[in-house]
Design brief:
Layout: H1 3-19, H2 23-37, E1 42-49, E2 54-62, E3 76-78, H3 83-95, E4 102-105, H4 113-120, E5 123-133, E6 136-146, H5 154-184, H6 195-212, E7 216-223, H7 226-233, H8 235-253, E8 260-265, E9 268-274, H9 278-293, E10 301-307, H10 318-334, E11 341-342, H11 347-358
Parallel strand pairs: 10-11
Antiparallel strand pairs: 1-2, 1-6, 2-3, 4-5, 5-6, 7-9, 7-10, 8-9
Length: about 375
């Protein structure tokens, strides 16, 4: 491959990683781009898990063998099986210079597992390039050619070093984008999901409900006593109360498979359940009320539940589900109830929600921001 072709391959690899929608897709694009750029038969990208002392394969691309899944669930190897990793990344690199790829062949591989693996899988040669992020060894790029094809040479190792640097830049950008996405859907104080994430999850869930009748439930919670804590003990103490309740909500949400725990803002929280029955959701909400009642400084929580598994009429939008759950929560708060109020099991709640729907937007109080 000439210089122009190699430059084009580098650009193509970077563009493919940038266009990938998810980290897994980005990883596959990197492996495929490197394989094509180096005329390889197979490529893999692995991450070095320091805490486990293992090299974990993230993606296998190209001519995979029977024991090589595209996205392995747990294909990993002890680092001590690959002595060149500690030699290259801990001695040569740390001692001076920068990371550099190397070539191995099935016939003359260094002692260790690499040569054995090449022979067993019918490959004749490979090039291995360290992937370095923020000055630390992150993992490796591995490109191999099948037995019978030309061996890689030193110029291929130099090119692989460039490709590994491009992949590292792509991974860093992907990490930044992933962090930005995470922040966009996360409440900064509690670490729970935020309102935007709730809206998206409810829209997806209600589409499942329309297609297949999946039960969708919403629990709306109002943390009692926050204003008193803020006024008498300060907002820092109030924030700690919010964080502690957020932990309790997360713990109880884990009792419902696939539930989403979120903070809507201020003292309002919610749980979105998709799949579990209305009875299961009510049981977990009762546990949530019990645990919240034991929080130091707090005054318990008012919870309202609305579930398509109860007789609440057709639910065609998240707005309708929110109105029902909000009306139930409003009733629980007004009654200082230590247990949740459930829409459909209390007909007054359905009436409250219908009344709220008829109010002018400027007259709404409990349904702010949810229309």
């Amino acid at each position: 491959m000439g210089l122009d072709a190699r430059l084009g391959a580098v650009v193509g690899l970077a563009q493919a990683m940038a266009a990938a929608g998810a980290p897994r897709d980005s990883m596959r694009a990197a492996a495929r781009g490197a394989r094509l750029a180096m005329d390889g038969s197979f490529a893999a990208i692995s991450a070095w898990e320091r805490e486990r002392g293992r090299l974990r394969v993230l993606v296998n691309e190209g001519g995979r063998r029977a024991d090589e899944a595209e996205y392995p669930e747990d294909e990993s190897y002890p680092v001590h099986d690959f002595p060149e990793i500690t030699e290259f990344l801990h001695e040569r690199w740390v001692g001076g210079g920068g990371p550099h790829a190397w070539v191995e062949s099935a016939a003359g591989a260094r002692p260790g597992r690499r040569g054995e693996t090449l022979r067993r899988r019918g490959r004749g040669t490979c090039v291995v390039a360290p992937v370095v992020l923020s000055g630390r060894a992150w993992g490796e790029l591995y490109v191999a050619r099948d037995d019978g094809l030309p061996d890689f040479g030193e110029d291929d190792a130099e090119f692989a070093t460039v490709l590994a640097a491009v992949i590292a830049a792509g991974l860093a950008q992907s990490d930044r984008l992933e962090e930005a996405r995470r922040l966009a859907f996360t409440d900064p104080l509690t670490g729970l999901a935020n309102r935007r994430a709730v809206d998206m999850r409810l829209d997806e869930a209600l589409e499942e409900h329309r297609r297949g009748g999946v039960v969708v439930s919403l629990v709306v919670c109002d943390l009692n006593g926050l204003k008193r804590v803020n006024d008498t003990l300060g907002h820092a103490t109030g924030d700690r109360l919010l964080e502690r309740f957020g932990s309790v909500l997360s713990l109880c949400g884990a009792m419902l498979p696939g539930a989403l725990a979120a903070r809507l803002g201020g003292d309002e929280f919610c749980l979105v359940g998709v799949g579990p029955s209305a009875d299961e959701v009510v049981r977990v909400t009762e546990e949530l009320c019990r645990r919240a009642d034991g929080l130091e400084l707090g005054e318990g929580v008012a919870c309202g539940v609305a579930s398509t598994g109860d007789p609440i009429g057709p639910v065609t939008s998240s707005r309708r589900l929110f109105r029902l759950a909000d009306a139930a929560q409003y009733k629980a708060k007004a009654a200082r109830s230590a247990r949740p109020v459930v829409a459909g099991r209390d007909t007054a709640v359905v009436h409250l929600a219908d009344t709220a729907q008829q109010e002018a937007p400027g007259e709404r109080r409990r349904f702010r921001g949810r229309a």
